[in-house]
């Protein structure tokens, strides 16, 4: 897979638009269909906002976003932070059957990330969280 872009900025909300613009540009360059760009932007906003609010618990830290593409099958976004360990892939799907007032708070954004992308993987390497979101460049059910 060829690296298209790498963006490293402090984990602060003021940098959210810059991250999203960089990923959108990389996705376009990497062959992602125009229809899928909105899904990527929503997923990125959810993941990055969660990192910015919770990963560093008031301490300073950076987020690294690496975009890759093989130009045929996958566009991959790797989001890396040195915050506290959090495996969003282990969060169960929220109960979506009740009314809003009956539902438990939390987990809905993570559910959206999992449905807006084709594959989400998490790993912890040393003190780093590495979240990988894969978007299919060929026709898939998530469109």
Commentary on this structure:
By secondary structure, the protein is an alpha+beta fold. It has a single domain, classed as Heat Shock Protein 90. The chain is built from three helices and five strands. Strands 1-2-3-5-4 form a five-stranded antiparallel β-sheet, covered by helices on one side. Helix 1 (16-29) packs antiparallel against helix 2 (34-55) and helix 2 (34-55) runs antiparallel to helix 3. The protein starts with a strand and ends in a 7-residue tail after the last strand. The model has no long low-confidence stretch (mean pLDDT 86).
Notable characteristics:
globular, 3 helices, Heat Shock Protein 90, alpha+beta, 143 residues, 29% strand
Would you tell me which CATH topology applies?
A: Heat Shock Protein 90
Mean pLDDT: 86
Overall body shape:
globular
Q: Tell me the strand percentage band.
A: 25-35%
In this structure, how is the largest beta sheet organized? 5 strands, antiparallel
| Total domains | 1
Gyration radius, rounded: 15 Å
Number of separate helices = 3
Give the termini separation: 23 Å
Tell me which oligomeric state these chains represent.
single chain
Q: What topology, given as strand order, has the largest sheet?
A: 1-2-3-5-4
- By CATH reckoning, the class would read Alpha Beta
CATH homology superfamily: Histidine kinase-like ATPase, C-terminal domain
CATH architecture: 2-Layer Sandwich
Low-confidence stretches: none
SSE order, one letter for each helix or strand: EHHEEHEE
């Amino acid at each position: 897979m060829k690296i298209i872009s790498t963006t490293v900025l402090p984990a602060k909300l003021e940098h959210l638009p810059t991250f999203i613009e960089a990923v959108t540009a990389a996705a376009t360059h990497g062959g992602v269909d125009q229809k899928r760009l909105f899904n990527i932007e929503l997923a990125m906003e959810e993941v990055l906002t969660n990192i910015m609010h919770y990963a560093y618990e008031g301490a300073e830290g950076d987020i690294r976003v690496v975009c890759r593409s093989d130009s045929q099958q996958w566009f991959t976004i790797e989001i890396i932070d040195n915050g506290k360990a959090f495996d969003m892939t282990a969060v169960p799907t929220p109960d979506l059957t009740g009314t809003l007032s009956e539902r438990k708070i939390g987990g809905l954004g993570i559910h959206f990330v999992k449905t807006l992308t084709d594959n989400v993987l998490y790993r912890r390497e040393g003190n780093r969280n590495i979240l990988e979101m894969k978007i299919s460049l060929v026709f898939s059910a998530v469109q």
